[in-house]
Design a protein that fits this description.
Number of strands: 10
Strand content: over 45%
Low-confidence stretches: 49-56, 191-198
Number of helices: 1
Structural class: mainly beta
Distance between the termini: 101 Å
Helix content: under 10%
Oligomer: single chain
Mean pLDDT: 77
Order of helices and strands: HEEEEEEEEEE
Strand order of the largest sheet: 3-4-5-6-7-8-9-10
Largest sheet: 8 strands, antiparallel, barrel
Shape: rod-shaped
C-alpha cells in the first residue's frame, strides 16, 4: 500500500510539472528524493564578425618614369614630341596630393623646318588626387631649362646653340597609369631663312604611361 501511495505521489508530481512551471530544487517523497534543475536554453553562438574586405591601399610612388609620345603644333608648324619625365616625391598632403621634383627630357622635331631641339629642363609636378573611379590624378606640371637646337637646312645645318625654354600644362593620370598630357611649349625659334625670330608658343598633345 505504501509503495502504491508513493507511486501515485510521484505520478501526480510529474503531472504537475507538465501543467505548471515549477521552481528548481530538491523534493523529498519519503524514500525518493527528486532534484529538479533549471533547464537552460543553449547560449547562442557569438556571431562571427563579418570579415571586413581588405581595403586596397594605393601605394604612393616614391619616384616615377613617365614617357609620352605626341604632337606639337604652333611655332614649328607641326612637330613630333617625345618627352620623358623622371620625378621624385618630395611632399605629400593629408588629401594624398603629391609634389614631385625631377627632370624633363626628350626631343622635338619639326620635319617642315628640318629642326630638332633637345630640351633639358627641371620639372615640378603637383598631383591632385581625384575621387573618380577611373581617374587617379590630375597633375599640374611646369618645366624650365635649356634647349639644345639643331638645324638640317642647307647652309643652316648643324649646331645652332642653346637657349632658355619652358613648358607647362596639365596631365590626367588614370587608374591604369595611362597618361594624357596637354600643355604649352615655348621653344626658341630663330630662322633667318623664314624671316621668323623670337619665342613662340606651341600646343602639346601626348599620350603615355607612368611607370
Amino acid at each position: 500500500m505504501k509503495k502504491l501511495l508513493l507511486f501515485l505521489t510521484v505520478f501526480l508530481f510529474f503531472g504537475f510539472l507538465i501543467a505548471e512551471d515549477v521552481k528548481t530544487g530538491e523534493y523529498d517523497f519519503g524514500d525518493i528524493t527528486v532534484t529538479l534543475f533549471e533547464e537552460r536554453e543553449p547560449e547562442p553562438e557569438p556571431e562571427k564578425a563579418e570579415e571586413a574586405e581588405p581595403e586596397t591601399k594605393e601605394k604612393t610612388k616614391f619616384f616615377y618614369v613617365q614617357p609620352v609620345l605626341g604632337i606639337e603644333l604652333g611655332n614649328i608648324a607641326f612637330g613630333t614630341l617625345f618627352n620623358l619625365d623622371i620625378d621624385f616625391l618630395v611632399a605629400q598632403t593629408k588629401r594624398k596630393n603629391n609634389i614631385y621634383l625631377g627632370l624633363d627630357l626628350g626631343m622635338t622635331g619639326a620635319p617642315y623646318y628640318r629642326f630638332i631641339t633637345v630640351p633639358l629642363q627641371a620639372n615640378i609636378t603637383f598631383d591632385f588626387k581625384q575621387k573618380d573611379p577611373n581617374l587617379n590624378y590630375v597633375s599640374l606640371w611646369m618645366s624650365i631649362g635649356a634647349a639644345f637646337n639643331f638645324w638640317v637646312y642647307r647652309d643652316y645645318s648643324g649646331w645652332k646653340g642653346t637657349a632658355v625654354a619652358w613648358r607647362t600644362g596639365l596631365s590626367m593620370i588614370f587608374v591604369n597609369d595611362m597618361v594624357i598630357k596637354i600643355g604649352l611649349d615655348r621653344l626658341p625659334v630663330e630662322k633667318d631663312v623664314h624671316n621668323l625670330r623670337g619665342l613662340y608658343l606651341s600646343l602639346i598633345i601626348a599620350l603615355g604611361y607612368r611607370f
